[in-house]
């Protein structure tokens, strides 16, 4: 299996990314690091531990990272995820412990210990990844690739052009896209293909285990919030697409191109300028996910949930 580390801000869809990685045999979830984004760090960290607890996952360390963006103020996405970043179900106390190391320390230890290079899967603002690259440049070679949920080839979901994870910490995203490491961008243009329809909810409910029951409560809250705040009754389950790509590249079609992150725009801060038509002739620095094999994606999600508790 491909060794992966998930850096996340759970968040309803982040939870499904964790479950997909924990429940699929093609990837090995080495560790989880948390970042402030959908909620304050305290919430996203507790929620990551709860996600693993509910699914019965043991032995995967969870370490907390940055409590806010590199240079900007944190704006938690309460309008989608609620005040605790995981609105909906009654949350159990997490049985999974918090690792004493920082996100950077845990990531460094896992990269050093892994027999092969590790795939980093960030599903929140890129603050932790940017800090890691700055603080541990000697370990870059231990990173196989970065598969990130964020950005968009088109319109945004917090501004006209900015997607939430990119907009939360554009300076961090800019650093990662200029890092020279292999980056895959899973933006809104593809994540809005992963819609949580009533059929999807019914098929997850039909699994009938504890994880699926908790998951259905998450999805119901998430879809209701999407309907109210974005006029989309079938919410898009953005984050697990990253893990699906780590499992099976054929689940998404990608285009290799140049991506810049707007850090200064008066109206566009946090926008990802994706040069799909090669207008600028700049060196290609990312694989940008374009289209999703939707049935295959949901099969992967369902099979993983079914394999958990
Ligand atoms: C991204 O923002 C968060 O609210 C989600 O968890 C996802 O990572 C979508 O814009
Ligand atoms: Ca997220």
From TrEMBL:
It comes from the Bacteria. One of its GO terms (biological process) is purine nucleoside catabolic process. CDD domains: nuc_hydro_IU_UC_XIUA (cd02651). Residues 4-299 form the Inosine/uridine-preferring nucleoside hydrolase domain. InterPro entries: Inosine/uridine_hydrolase_dom, IUNH, Ribo_hydro-like. GO terms for molecular function: purine nucleosidase activity. One of its GO terms (cellular component) is cytosol. The keyword Acetylation does not apply. Keywords: Glycosidase, Hydrolase. This is Purine nucleosidase/pyrimidine-specific ribonucleoside hydrolase.
């Amino acid at each position: 299996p491909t060794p992966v580390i998930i850096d996340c801000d759970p968040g309803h869809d982040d939870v499904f990314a964790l479950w997909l990685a924990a429940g699929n045999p093609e990837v090995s979830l080495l560790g989880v690091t948390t970042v402030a984004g959908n909620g304050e760090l305290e919430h996203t960290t507790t929620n990551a531990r709860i996600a693993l607890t509910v699914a019965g996952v043991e032995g995967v360390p969870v370490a907390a990272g940055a409590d806010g963006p590199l240079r900007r103020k944190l704006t938690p996405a309460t309008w989608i995820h609620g005040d605790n970043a995981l609105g909906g179900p009654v949350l159990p106390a997490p049985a999974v412990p918090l690792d004493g190391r920082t996100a950077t320390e845990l990531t460094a230890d896992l990269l050093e210990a892994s027999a092969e290079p590790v795939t980093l899967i960030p599903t929140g603002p890129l603050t932790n990844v940017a800090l890691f690259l700055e603080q541990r440049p000697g370990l870059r070679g231990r990173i196989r690739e970065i598969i990130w949920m964020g950005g968009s080839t088109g319109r945004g979901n917090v501004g006209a052009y900015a997607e939430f994870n990119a907009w939360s910490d554009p300076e961090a995203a800019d650093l990662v896209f200029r890092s020279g490491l292999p980056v895959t961008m899973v933006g809104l243009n593809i994540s809005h293909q992963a819609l949580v329809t009533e059929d999807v909810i019914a098929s997850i409910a039909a699994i009938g285990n504890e994880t699926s029951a908790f998951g259905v409560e998450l999805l119901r809250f998430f879809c209701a919030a999407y309907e109210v705040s974005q006029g989309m009754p079938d919410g898009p389950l953005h984050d697990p697409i990253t893990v699906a790509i780590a499992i099976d590249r054929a689940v998404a079609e990608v285009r290799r191109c140049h991506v810049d992150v707007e850090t200064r725009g008066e109206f566009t801060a946090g926008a990802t300028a994706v040069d799909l038509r090669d207008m600028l002739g700049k060196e290609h620095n990312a694989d940008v996910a374009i289209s999703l094999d939707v049935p295959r994606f949901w099969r992967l999600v369902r099979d993983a949930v079914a394999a958990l508790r």
